[in-house]
Amino acid sequence: MKPVDFLNLKYKPKSSDLVCLFRVEPNKVSIKEASENVALESSIGTWDEVSTEKAYMKKLGAKVFSIKGNKVKIAYPGELFEGGNAPNILSSIAGNIFGMKIVKNLRLDDIKIPDGILNSFSGPKYGINGIRKMMKVYDRPLVGTIVKPKLGLKTLDHAKVAYEAWMGGCDLVKDDENLSSQRFNQFEERLARTLEMADRAEEETGEKKAYLVNVTAETKEMMKRAELVEQLGGKFIMVDVVTEGFGALQTLREGDFKMAIHAHRAMHAAFTRNPKHGISMMVLADMVRLIGCDTLHIGTVVGKLEGRLDEVSEIEEEIEKKVVKETKIRLAQDWGKIKSVLAVSSGGLHPGHIPFLMKNLGKDLVMQFGGGIHAHKLGTGAGARAVRQAVDATMQKISLKEYAKNHAELRIALEQWGK
Ligand code: CAP
Ligand code: MG
To answer: So what's the pLDDT on residue 30?
Structure first.
């Protein structure tokens, strides 16, 4: 039987193919041989031809159809995958291949998902427009905070910090990625007390307020917690999408709760950070959108993660800006029935960063400040006000320095952290 051709540089991908862009660094073999092995191992092949192979399955073989330098494009027939099954797709295109000896480094940089697979998923329930409608904020970025310290606060202190932040002008208050239901701050009590504070702040400010409570846990327990949030009238739940896992994330989305899902990406840098090996943030963003989260962390360029501005060279900053911008654009790209995802910038941010973020990432954005609010000299409420003042100034095209002249909270923030 003629072997499957996993390498065909004349092949024109079909619209029903899922196409992957890899960066391949061969290990003592040609790029053609390395790429061919990536294609076979991530579809129907193994290290030698097996006698059990049937002619009828050849059409399922993935094909390397473009090699430009170390950039390799591979087309996967849509029938290779089970529709609506995210872990299944990743087990092929992002499975064993990263461990193969025939490559020194391998990075999945980008994917193009065919309509057939797109339409087999739910996508976000609310998306950018739905969240804007829910929060009644239409013309500016949303601002949020993370209750800090990230762990250790007792429930009533947690709820109090949240209240201060909402009263200061935060739209969103979220749990930190590693807060679940530890003894010092148990989930149910925390949920009830903090939602009470959200209701109070809504009444007193006339603005919509949302609590992004972290439901990350064993899947059944996670579902129970999400049901409780819905029963208590919560607008949002938050989940650590990488540590929770794509299958469990689908279970949460298929619960079809009347709540938006906030995706935290803790652990992502374990596979997204190395530009030579792993999986890009763009691919992670695509999977999170496909499954159906409404908001997703995408990075800041200027913040503390992935290297602060003064530590990275201009080139690195341009590359990072490009990655963050492209991910944001991708999250709002037209995917037919699949709604958009609202991008979240977070990590080492303070009010001085706001003009840069709004200039580079626009208004369809959530900007989150943990230390940048709670470390304000005058406390959480003042920190939140300083953030809103910086947003107002930027919306009115007034420099922060000028606006700070008659806005004390912002002036103090700029004295503390600069611009
Ligand atoms: C930010 C944060 C977020 C990071 C996640 C933290 O706090 O709560 O988890 O932003 O990173 O724990 O570091 P600060 P990313 O505002 O105090 O820095 O958004 O890159 O996924
Ligand atoms: Mg955090």
So the answer is: 98
